[in-house]
Design a protein that fits this description.
This protein is of the alpha/beta class. Helix content is 40%, strand content 13%. It contains 16 helices and 14 strands. The strands form five sheets. The chain has a five-stranded mixed β-sheet, with helices on both faces. Strands 9-12-11 form a three-stranded antiparallel β-sheet. Helix 1 runs antiparallel to helix 14, helix 2 runs antiparallel to helix 11 and helix 8 packs across helix 9. The radius of gyration is 21 Å and the shape is globular.
Length: 460
């Protein structure tokens, strides 16, 4: 997985470019103050290298752009829907799909359909929007990920694994009828892009089947997870990524998909299920919240690009280069002694803000402070994944205090070159050299939901 210094190159050539803005530090200081020290509130024109997210920021292929020109924009029964349906059935194996405008649209649907007030939803670490939809439906999230996932320094290979003892304890305590499904993410974003092993998922399937509990798959980065299984799990090295993806999906009952990641599109997602009753209710619900069940808030051209992107996402050359670029950046930081989450994940490098800024208390938002400082240094936009993202306990109003306080350097697919990664690494190293001069922040505006998107801060 490109752990060595052997030269390698991206499996594509560039045929169109977008000029980037080169700004001064004075310009960035003003922009950051106006954004309330929240990188989400920066204007893209003020950003040089944008590592805020890999969601909807990838570069589409010539085949995808050609597909965009063949959009069937009929309100009902668009042929592009049937192309998308066929791609999902072929590459993922799910029987039924409902398009949505993006992944959280699918999260909303499945939460409304399956969760009742008082239900418990176990999962291999929370994700922000997923947990919120579960809570809005009356459920409570329960973390069943292995303990190693909460330790940035642990080199445990599959930090996305479920601790089967934790899951069994929840079943024993609440009963299977209070657990509408187990939420399984491939890979685990909040743990640092960490994969779940195939064997662990098989074991989870066996346990849930015994108790009659569904598995709902957050499959937004399933191809990346499959790539890690292929290279790290014993007995899987001879299989194709496509084959592993298909088996992963076969071990679950349904899925939510933000196609803005693996499937290489700028907008779109879907809900997939093997259960007719769930599909039937989703068809009813989607008309209320998204659009007709054959477009779900998407244009026909977007569904065509998604169908093509799904096929491209499981290509061996593509996924090798995609994960390889992340490892390239991660290894440069490791060699420089920068504290990051180990092992390196698949969609980004996660700086350990607690170790980077040990003098900044967690209540002073060290990850938010570090993300702001990285932008000031070279115009590189990153994002916080710590106390701000964790939010508050809905019952007590107290801040969640996660063990992991991270800054995510997320690498978009097919967008930047290795030279861009060199610039990013050099900036992180400069900031690390002056880290003791960095102070914390105080929050001066907090929205009601998902505060990390719109909160504003001031320097202490």
């Amino acid at each position: 997985m490109n752990r060595t210094h052997t030269p390698w190159a991206e499996p594509y050539k560039i045929k169109m470019v977008e000029p980037l803005a080169m700004t001064t530090r004075e310009h960035r200081e003003k922009a950051l103050q106006e954004a309330g020290y929240n990188t989400f509130l920066l204007k893209s024109e003020d950003v040089y290298i944008d590592l805020l997210t890999d969601s909807g920021t990838s570069a589409m292929s010539d085949r995808q752009w050609a597909g965009m020109m063949m959009g069937d924009e009929a309100y009902a029964g668009s042929r592009n829907f049937y192309h998308l349906e066929a791609a999902v059935q072929r590459y993922y194996g799910y029987k039924h799909i409902i398009p949505t405008h993006q992944g959280r649209g699918a999260e909303n649907l499945i939460s409304r359909i399956l969760i009742k007030p008082g239900d418990i939803v176990p999962g291999n670490m929370y994700f922000t929007t997923t947990r919120l939809h579960q809570e809005l439906a009356g459920g409570s999230f329960a973390d069943i990920i292995v303990d190693e996932a909460h330790d940035a320094l642990s080199n445990f290979t599959f930090k996305g694994n479920v601790d089967l003892r934790k899951l069994q304890a929840l079943i024993d305590k609440h009963g299977a009828k209070k657990i509408p499904y187990v939420s399984i993410a491939t890979t685990v974003n909040m743990a640092g892009g960490q994969p779940i092993s195939l064997q662990n998922l098989r074991d989870v399937r066996a346990l849930t089947k015994k108790h009659g509990i569904r598995i709902i798959h957050d499959m937004t980065r399933v191809a990346e997870n499959a790539y890690m299984i292929k290279h790290l799990e014993e007995g899987q090295e001879g299989r194709s990524v496509a084959d592993i993806v298909l088996e992963i999906c076969s071990l679950t009952d349904g899925a939510t998909m933000s196609a803005k990641k693996d499937a290489l599109v700028n907008i779109g997602g879907f809900l997939a299920t093997n259960e007719w009753d769930v599909y039937e209710e989703a068809r009813n619900q989607v008309v209320i919240y998204e659009g007709l069940h054959t477009y779900g808030g998407l244009a026909g051209r977007d569904m065509e690009a998604m169908a093509i992107g799904i096929g491209e996402s499981i290509g061996e050359d593509h996924i090798r280069a995609r994960v390889g670029q992340v490892f390239y950046l991660g290894n440069k930081l490791v060699e420089a002694g920068i504290p990051i989450v180990r092992p390196i994940g698949t969609h980004g490098v996660f700086l350990d803000a607690k170790a980077f800024l040990p003098h900044v208390a967690q209540t002073a938002f060290p990850a938010q402070s570090l993300a702001a400082e990285l932008y000031l240094d070279a115009g590189v936009r990153t994002m916080e994944r710590g106390i701000v993202s964790a939010g508050r306990n809905k019952e007590t109003g107290e801040n969640y205090m996660p063990e992991l306080e991270l800054v995510r350097l997320t690498v978009p697919r097919r967008v930047y070159t290795q030279a861009h990664m060199d610039v990013v690494a050099a900036s992180v190293m400069r900031v690390f050299g002056r880290r003791m001069a960095i102070t914390g922040l105080k929050m001066v505006y907090e929205p009601k939901y998902l505060r990390f998107f719109q909160a504003q801060f001031e320097k202490l």
